[in-house]
Design goal:
Blueprint (H helix, E strand, L loop, with lengths): L1 E5 L6 H13 L4 E4 L10 H9 L3 E3 L3 H6 L10 H13 L2 H8 L4 E4 L3 E4 L13 H10 L5 E3 L6 E5 L4 E4 L3 E4 L6 E5 L12 E7 L4 E7 L3 H10 L13 H13 L3
Parallel strand pairs: 1-2, 2-3, 5-6, 6-10
Antiparallel strand pairs: 1-11, 4-5, 7-8, 7-10, 9-12, 11-12
Helix pairs in contact: 2-5
Length: about 260
């Protein structure tokens, strides 16, 4: 069985459709979605409706909860606040009902456990190897934990350092090891290039392959402009200083 690991769609329909077309061609059987279907992007109703048709499991993200007014924007950057105020106003009733029905955590095939930020908190960032191992210790029955929220790809084993951090490529999963995986963001890249990021977990081959796909970012930006939203909301490239500080902090914390 092949699982498509997706998340942080952020109402970017152009990126989502590109990712789903790719997964269809890759023979994906079911999906594991880490949530944040809305926020930042211009097409929240369309993205929620599309994800709702997919076989597999999906959990609720912090942006989804904010749009439902179940969390506040206190911990959000100004761009997120602006887009979420708009999202909260325009969400359709069916979209709200779909988001409210999403669980905070779910299990998929292959002893895969999925949540948004961490197993306990949708707003908590799991970025380092130490933090990832803490998640595995909190869920001893799960072979693989899939998380989102950071918008950064990650693969960490319970016994070692990150096998992949922020990039693409294949990671071999050992049969007696346990892992935390983050497929990155479909709809709001925070790396140098705007790409739709996802991963394909092959349970039979015991591999996970991380991908970064080109998509029609011009179409997304045009839709953002049409809806009165900042056209750069679909891509936040890292600032050099912020990137350096982030790497330093991760090394200090054990990542």
């Amino acid at each position: 069985m092949r699982l498509g690991l997706i998340g942080d769609v952020h109402a970017n329909l152009a990126a989502l459709e590109t990712a789903l077309d790719f997964c269809d061609g890759a023979g994906v059987d079911e999906y594991v979605c880490t949530g944040d279907l809305v926020g930042y992007g211009p097409q929240p109703d369309e993205c929620v409706a599309r994800v709702a048709t997919l076989p597999g499991v999906c959990v609720v993200g912090n942006h989804d909860l904010i749009a439902l007014e179940e969390l506040t924007t206190e911990r959000c950057i100004p761009l997120a606040r602006q887009s979420l105020e708009w999202t909260t106003r325009v969400l359709g009733d069916e979209t709200r009902a779909t988001l409210r029905a999403l669980p905070a955590g779910a299990r998929s095939a292959g002893d895969v456990l999925v949540a948004h930020g961490s197993l306990a908190d949708p707003e908590e960032y799991v970025r380092t190897a130490t933090q990832a191992r803490e998640q595995l210790e909190a869920a001893p029955g799960a072979r693989i934990i899939v998380l989102g929220h950071t918008h950064e790809t990650l693969a960490v084993g319970a016994r070692g350092q990150p096998l992949l951090a922020g990039g693409t490529g294949e990671v071999k999963l050992e049969p007696d090891e346990r892992y935390v995986l983050n497929p990155g963001s479909i709809g709001q890249s925070r790396q140098r290039s705007a790409r739709a990021r996802l991963a394909v977990l092959d349970l039979e081959r015991s591999t996970v392959v991380f991908h970064a796909l080109r998509y029609d970012i011009a179409a997304c930006r045009a839709e953002l402009r049409r809806r009165g939203l900042p056209e750069d909301a679909c891509h936040l490239p890292p600032r050099p200083l912020r990137r350096l500080v982030g790497r330093t902090l991760r090394r200090m914390r054990g990542g």
